[in-house]
Amino acid sequence: MLSRLTRPKAVAVCAVPVVALLGVAVFAPLPFSVAQPGMTANVLGENKGDPVITITGAATRKTSGQLRMTTIEATGPDASVGLGDVLDAWFRTDQAVMPRDSVYPSGNSVKEIEQHNADEMKESQDTAAEAALSYLGEKDDVKVTLKLADVGGPSAGLLFSLGIVDKLDGDGSGGDLTGGRNIAGTGTIDADGKVGAVGGVALKTQAARRDGATVFLVPKAECSDAESELPKGLRLIPVTTLEGAVDSLVALEKGTGSVPSC
Predict the structure, then answer these.
(1) What pLDDT, on the 0 to 100 scale, is given for residue 231?
(2) Distance CA 185, CA 183 (A)
(3) Cβ neighbours of residue 248 under 8 Å, at least 6 residues apart?
(4) Residue 13 in contact with residue 69, Cβ under 8 Å?
(5) Is the pLDDT of residue 227 over 80?
(6) Residue 81 CB: number of other CB atoms within 10 A?
(7) What is the rounded distance in angstroms from the CA atom of residue 256 to the CA atom of residue 250?
(8) Can you state the angle between helices 110-136 and 157-168, rounded to 10 degrees?
(9) Cα(262)–Cα(257) distance, integer angstroms
(10) Which residue has the higher pLDDT, 12 or 122?
(11) How many helices (H) and strands (E) does the chain have?
């Protein structure tokens, strides 16, 4: 049939299904989430009127400075993300396109996903307390309660642990672990104090700088991601363990020893 048409008519006939497919692609939902920098919270302070860290069974220090956990905000698991949304976010530095399955567990309802994230946060808090108390050698009779409203997932583990260490021991010689600075970061943590990668670090560095941080603790494996859109005035310190993070902050505070960089 196409052989009997003139070239312009043939092109026009071929274009019809192509245009139709493009139209479907523009309006059809895609399996992506669009993320942007989210809220941050100082784990040494309060969140929505409640202390983030409460410790009983041991004397605590009055701290200065801030230890800010960071988050990203992503379109909801039931949100419809189209080609236009993806293309818009692709060319922006303050947004990122992420596979939906990397943000939310696949195949679950919104309610189940919210419960999953809440469970991960609770497990992360328990592990962070265990890692911090183990590092300090203070497991007996010390109880730590962590409370952070409206945040899910495990990525605040490192900052929770550092907050507990600062409240109980500071820099180990009477000073603050933060050195009075506004320090932010991200990273999971296990009971042995090992720091794990989390994803979304380029957006989290933007959230940290927006909220006044000058130092950002990043899982070492994610250095290159953190450097890709690093805001001016924010210093990266790579970490692999809780002990290493504490050592780096003490070296930064005292101005002695080496502070690692990405």
Answers:
(1) 96
(2) 7
(3) 217, 237, 239, 259, 260
(4) no
(5) yes
(6) 19
(7) 8
(8) 40
(9) 17
(10) 122
(11) 8, 12
